[in-house]
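Here is a typical sample entry:
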Amino acid sequence: MSHADKLLFGTAGVPKSTEGTSTLAGIQRIAEIGLDCLEVEFVQGVKMGGDTAAKIRDEAQKLGIRLSVHAPYFINLNSPEEGKRLASQERILSSARLAEACGAGCVVIHLGFYGKNSPEQTYAKIKEGLREVASFLKSERNPVLLRPETMGKKAQFGSLEEILQLARDMDGVEPCVDFSHLHARTGKMNTYLEFHRILKKIAMKLGKRALHNMHIHISGSIYNEKGELKHANLEESDFRFDEWIQALKDFDARGMVICESPVQDTDALMLKNLYYP
């Protein structure tokens, strides 16, 4: 398991201020502006050749930029249709294989929806599907971690408890904790005390080591009673990022913070400067 020796800040996808849209240009821009990491977005599909992946790996290593990958959005391991479940597993596997080729340490996944199933039935179905994926990767000796994400809509599988339980139940699985999703999902989880409780729960469920190998998503969020509607810039949202930063400091959190705001590079730099004044 890879551990960062500090908290790294970066963007979801190529920073807005980049000239061009390629991941290579994005990595170079991340280094230019003083950020530390980048999440390669395969959210609309896994479309990257092996040569490109090798160039990305080499450039990131040369510039000291840490990488992660986000799997496609079109994944539902709880679909009632077997074909959709199998296609979902294949999308995760393809993402993990390319993540390894890019030198990324993990792949972030939206696992699915409850649909007509109970939360308990959904958990069992998703765990079964994810376990099969993890088994394939193990047989291929692929070291990339699977990181199920906490989700912002109440119809989506991905409460904090569900994601932590998956990580506890399975090897090769660690959480992606999206704090803005947790806030949008519950309408709460937005004070220092609540951030403190979240981090304490992670340590209790998975051990303190999990706090030294975190993968975090953050942005502002516009939401209603059903959960998240869309991302927003941090200063245009109600998210108390100053209290959140303090909680991360107090727990000596380490790993990657990926900013998903519309102006993701501006917000990521603001957060890094708050964390390292």
Q: What stands out?
A: The domain at 7-275 is CATH 3.20.20.150 (TIM Barrel). The chain has a mean pLDDT of 96. The CA atoms of residues 116 and 266 lie 40 Å apart.
